[in-house]
Amino acid sequence: MLLPPAYLFVRSFEDGVGNVLEVALEGRTLAVLLRSVVLAAAVTAATVLVAVPLAWLTARTDLPGRDAWTVLAALPLVIPSYVGGFVFVSMLGPRGILQGHLERLFGIQELPSIYGFPGAFLALTLFTYPYVFLTVRAALRGMDPALEEAARSLGSSGWETFFRVTLPQLRPAAAAGALLVALYVLSDFGAVSLLQYDSFTRAIYIQYRAAFDRTPAAIMGLMLIMLTLAILYVEARTRGRARYHRSTAGAVRPAPTVRLGGWKWPALAYCGTIVALALIMPVGVLGFWLARGLAHGEPLRLVWDAALNSVYVSSLAALATALAALPVAILAVRFPGAISGAIERLTYVGFALPGIVLALSLVFFGSNYAPWLYQGLAMLIFAYAVHFLPQAIGSTRAALLQASPRVEEAARSLGRSPLKTMATVTAPLARSGILAGMALVFLTTMKELPATLLLSPTGFDTLATRIWTATSEAFFARAAAPALLLIAVSAIPMYLLTIRDRMKL
């Protein structure tokens, strides 16, 4: 995890401290930093407001088709930001598909511009809320309902119980998801670039591509790391040292299903609206471009070889990242302190950095110090683990907070070693969080682009690289088929995860 910041530190201070201060305190740099912070804060707040009700409806209520809604609500996570940005421009732009239909029907000549903050805010909110949705839903599924039942037996209403008992227990999971959203927004390039919002990541990318001297880009990368550390500090201060497991003996059992009654229709409308904007509209626009390409003679390319490569490397990355995340999460939850806190926070640095910065740091390391790993599959998996480790740690940590350490202590007192206790007691207790983390890593690895482009073995194409190749050359019809295939392939593990969770396997 120290490789990316070490690379940035070396590049930044090549010309001395004075040059670093000059670039960092420049008015344009500070303005870009402020815009990035505003966008990250707005998107993070919006995703929590969207995802928490959605998670509760699909985990605790008798919502019709809630397993299907779970899969559909998580799928926007697999839509690459550069595809999502193109979809919004193509659909909602001043001269987009929607405006064309409105002009024919009502004579509307032009829609309000979606470029800038409104478009970036809307796109990133719709494509990142699954981070909060999956972690909160996993916490709801693993939560012991005893406290809620005690509150109801003492006369609290359903709403009072939710806000005073359930919601506080969800704070670690919501904070873990919100932290991922904030860092993702800071590192995103595709959506902000296509929607023309000047964020920190876009400035770093332009500096890397347009300037021969990459030192200013490295300095801005260091500033992004400092911003990440500030966000982690605020998150740690708000997290506190509260306990979220029960202190008495007893077995965790499923919470009773809440009957929606007349609220069923508003709940369905809410879920339908979110899924329509975040999934159906992008899929519809991709389908439009696919049909348009086929009508003009474009051959149908489903690129099954790239799909198999994507599934293979994403599965390896999910497994490796989950294994790496479990001991870090255990250390942070069971042995809180300065060292464990520093180790946990360090893992978030790689996630906050733009993919191109992370990839270039590993290219520097591989070409100079580990040539036997350079452009090999092991280096690619390593890059994914560095980039997406916080996704697995956040959900695993939230699940461990709800598991009483007394069970682990009992296993140790009966003679089991720490490693056996972790494998046979701790990991099963945190199962829901581990699976949610693996799902997050799998889905985001499927769409990862910069690391794949720079670090993958020669000839190793994935669906993300095929989509990027087509969209970068403005062949949108050619990109539609692999983009739709990416969404379809990613739906399978999400569906299996939902069924496994429901059946308690």
From TrEMBL:
Give the residue spans that cross the bilayer.
32-57, 69-93, 113-134, 173-197, 217-236, 267-291, 311-333, 345-366, 372-389, 475-497
What keywords tag this UniProt record? Cell inner membrane, Cell membrane, Membrane, Transmembrane, Transmembrane helix, Transport
Q: Which GO terms describe its biological process?
A: transmembrane transport
Q: Which domain of life is it from?
A: Bacteria
Cite the PROSITE patterns for this sequence.
ABC_TM1 (PS50928)
Task: Give the location in the cell.
Answer: Cell inner membrane; Cell membrane
Q: Which SUPFAM superfamilies match?
A: MetI-like
What is the membrane topology listed in the Swiss-Prot or TrEMBL record? Multi-pass membrane protein
PANTHER family referenced in this protein's UniProt entry, alphabetically: FE(3+)-TRANSPORT SYSTEM PERMEASE PROTEIN FBPB 2, INNER MEMBRANE ABC TRANSPORTER PERMEASE PROTEIN YDCV
Can you tell me which family this protein belongs to? Answer: Belongs to the binding-protein-dependent transport system permease family.
Which protein, by its recorded name, is this?
Iron ABC transporter permease
